[in-house]
Write a structure and sequence with these properties.
With 98 residues, the chain is an alpha/beta fold. It is 15% helix and 24% strand. The radius of gyration is 13 Å and the shape is globular.
């Protein structure tokens, strides 16, 4: 699936026509959406949304260190853009804010 861009966020959507549920996969700090590549074949029962956190991968860089709230806002904006019409699940790597 080809990378797409919205409001500075790089993302991919992998559609499974048999499912109405979406699974959003969020990578950890210092990584990018490619970290989930090997798991995609195991998640065929979902439509998958992958994206790069701000300042990671191909998403826009940030001037300041982003906070967890910044990342939450980014996800909210992305979901607003994609508007998945069914139930959405979330799976993320651990990310701490010191």
């Amino acid at each position: 699936m080809k990378r797409q861009y919205a409001d500075g966020t790089c993302f991919k959507v992998i559609k499974n026509n048999l499912s109405k549920d979406y699974l959003v996969l969020v990578h950890g700090l210092g990584l990018n959406l490619d970290v989930w590549t090997w798991q995609i074949p195991l998640l065929k029962s979902y439509n998958i949304i992958l994206y790069d956190l701000r300042g990671h991968g191909e998403s826009d860089p940030t001037e300041l260190k982003p906070s967890l709230q910044d990342f939450a806002n980014q996800l909210n904006d992305l979901l607003g853009h994609l508007n998945p019409v069914s139930y959405t699940h979330l799976r993320a790597h651990e990310t701490r804010e010191d």
